[in-house]
Write a structure and sequence with these properties.
Length: about 350
Amino acid sequence: MSIWRVERVLVTGGAGYIGSHCCKVLTQSGRLPIAYDNLSRGHADAVRWGPLITGDIRDPDRLAQALRDERIDAVIHFAALAYVGESVRDPLEYYDVNVNGMRTLLDAMLEGGCKRIVFSSSCATYGTPAHLPITEDSAQNPINPYGRTKLIGEWMLRDAAKAHGLRYAALRYFNAAGADPEGDLGERHAPETHLIPLALMAAAGLGPPLQVFGTDYATPDGTCIRDYIHVSDLARAHLCALDHLEGGGENVALNLGTGRGASIFDVVAAVERVTGRGVPLRFGPRREGDPPELTADPTRAAELIGFAPAYRELDDMIAHAAPWFGLSAQNQRGVASC
């Protein structure tokens, strides 16, 4: 007689924005998420769907103990530093946490016999694209240390797969946005650098006017265009990737986006439309290294792991995020599955 056992997934960075949302969807799928986080930027109160192990991703003994004691079957790896500007100012810290941390994690996994991992990569690995939309075959030429550390992480996975039989999915996010539609989790960064929270904070009077960096780009309204994807969709994509690997699927590197671009002024208009509040603006010059437009071709994720976003509309993302900044908004649509 076979004995069914709940799959146990180590979620590094599980107290963070995307990691905590991922823990929730893992629980909904019947798995047990074990969050592993040093809480330097995450929040212990966001770990609500399984245990929290406090530890650093660069600590080999702590990682080995977690993998062994918790009998981990697979890993979802979010733990990283993720501010582009900070990576330019302090690149060695980014290489230490993001690259050395990946090395330490992979060593611990292989020593412990755990060979399935879903990796939080980034569209920052592409740099400034020559063509749009960006496909997985587009050249990866990162233009900042953060993007380079994520690309190195992908290289490490590919080489470890060849040498040691590691099974992996590398998910290249575009711009994460929104909050849990059921209101359990939101976005809390210190400092906050994401456009939608900053626009909501400006509308709510919780922060300064929204800074717009450049209005002279070669885009329809002169501001940068980005591909925003709902954080709950991102979380669900990790579940789809895990299912893919567990079903014997090939190692993959995939874009996660909606394929739709929204400019800064589009986001401002959506915030004003959803909340009924004006967004005060302040204008400044372009920031060095900001590409005019980044939009994903999400076709391959749909084909290979069966993932499609449930929340494609910017208004939905803003409606779900707004209550976290004291603003009223009406939630919109339901959720999807893989």
